[in-house]
Write a structure and sequence with these properties.
The chain is mainly alpha-helical and 188 residues long. It is built from six helices and two strands, in the order αβααβααα. Strands 1-2 form a two-stranded parallel sheet. Helix 1 runs antiparallel to helix 2, helix 2 packs parallel to helix 6 and helix 4 packs antiparallel against helix 5. It is globular and about 55 Å long.
Length: 188
């Protein structure tokens, strides 16, 4: 087993658990739909997080040619996948039968942790890109997006403005979808 396969196995397991957690939570919300007060902004973030989770797994393939691996580079990837997992878990409340589930209240109550973990993930992604990938052009989505998203995520963590959160969720979804489906582009 080479270093890439070794690291990729760990990364894939944690990322797979994050996606399983996300899909399980969506399934539970559907099962408990009579008890759930939905919130469309939170629903957009479910889609965004799923797309980012999938993109991070897909982008791991780009690291197969990394010339050297160290414990520090491994820790960068652990930090990235840990923040992705945390973001996924914070997106949903604990669901117990019998009680009302208010996704609007949950979203705003946990926004600081959700968006700071999200910002941490983008910073870790930037550090991974700078560490592992040759930067041929600094006008690169793997550099530009984290530099753009981190301040916006920090603002989202600070503000409780419904208007900001609505606009930012739509903006984030449009940007992520546009880049994911653009030919030859990977956002890492």
């Amino acid at each position: 087993m080479n270093p890439f396969e070794f690291v990729c196995a760990f990364y894939s397991v944690v990322l797979g658990v994050a996606v399983a957690q996300l899909m399980t939570s969506v399934g539970r919300l559907i099962e408990m739909r009579d008890q759930v007060r939905t919130y469309w902004v939170q629903s957009l973030w479910v889609i965004i997080v799923l797309l980012i989770d999938c993109n991070c797994w897909w982008a791991m393939w780009d690291l197969r040619g990394a010339k050297s691996w160290s414990f520090v580079s491994f820790l960068l990837l652990v930090g990235l996948v840990a923040s992705i997992y945390l973001v996924t878990v914070l997106l949903f409340p604990r669901m117990e039968s019998g009680g009302q589930i208010d996704l609007d209240a949950h979203y705003y109550r946990n926004r600081r942790f959700f968006f700071l973990a999200n910002a941490t993930g983008w910073l870790m992604g930037l550090l991974c890109n700078l560490t592992f990938l040759p930067i041929k052009n600094w006008v690169n989505p793997g550099i530009i997006l984290p530099l753009m998203f981190v301040p916006l995520l920090v603002i989202a963590a600070i503000t409780g403005s419904r208007r900001y959160h609505s606009i930012f969720a739509i903006f984030a979804l449009v940007v992520i979808v546009a880049l994911l489906f653009a030919p030859g582009v990977s956002i890492k």
